[in-house]
Write the structure tokens for this entry.
Amino acid sequence: MDRLGMLVLLLVPLSVSAAALPCSIRPAPDTPASALPGLVTVSPADAQHAALARIKAPAPQVAHGALEIEHGCLVYSFDIRLAGKRGMEEILVDAGTGTIVSHTHESPQQEAAERAKDKGASPKPQPPSRSR
């Protein structure tokens, strides 16, 4: 294979980033979290059912599920534990169509990094002021 062909093969995956996630609902970045449920057409139960149907393992357990904006898309995000497997399966379900838009395995280290990132993104509670 020539150098140009090899370069194209290396760069094309980089150009198709997570920002290009196929989804039906792309809320404005400043949309308040309280407004997100009003944008969905798929119920949380139907989204969870779709996520669990994607897993081909006995007795998957949903560790966490939430409606959120990921990579500009409004999705239901599910972290699913599988017996005998370290880490979690993260499945993103389009909140407008109910289709799976992403399914990745996260190692325990990736999970910890994501939790830390999410924790840093949310406002930290202020300690109560002390009067003396």
Remarks:
- Strands lie at 61-70, 73-81, 88-94, 100-106.
- Residues 38 and 123 are 24 Å apart (CA to CA).
- The two ends are 76 Å apart (CA to CA).
- Residues 4-18, 122-132 have pLDDT under 50 and may be disordered.
